[in-house]
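Posting for a labmate who doesn't have an account.
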Amino acid sequence: MRHTESLATPDSNIMLQDFLTLSQILTGVENLDAELGRQYLDRLTSTPFDPVLRQILEQFGAMQESNDWSKMKTDFMRHSRDEIAGLEVRLHSSEGELEELKFRLMKK
């Protein structure tokens, strides 16, 4: 699909839905703006990344059709939350190390 083509075909509407659903999963943001998503998708499909994007969305669509979709989504969300929690722990640890370093430098 080129940038000048309309995304109003049935296939492009499915592609947009998959793009929005995948974006919601990856960002954790619900109720994404469909019009803005359409603009992002339109821009991406007019770049050299178009074939890769299509492949990703085709694979994502196939995953959704599988019987394990619900379990995969739940596992992904749990893993994402665990990763975020791990990042928060590392951030707090780093902040503590910075404070300790600052204290040591002030003593000198």
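Reply:
Got it, the structure tokens are right above this. Residues 1-7 have pLDDT under 50 and may be disordered.
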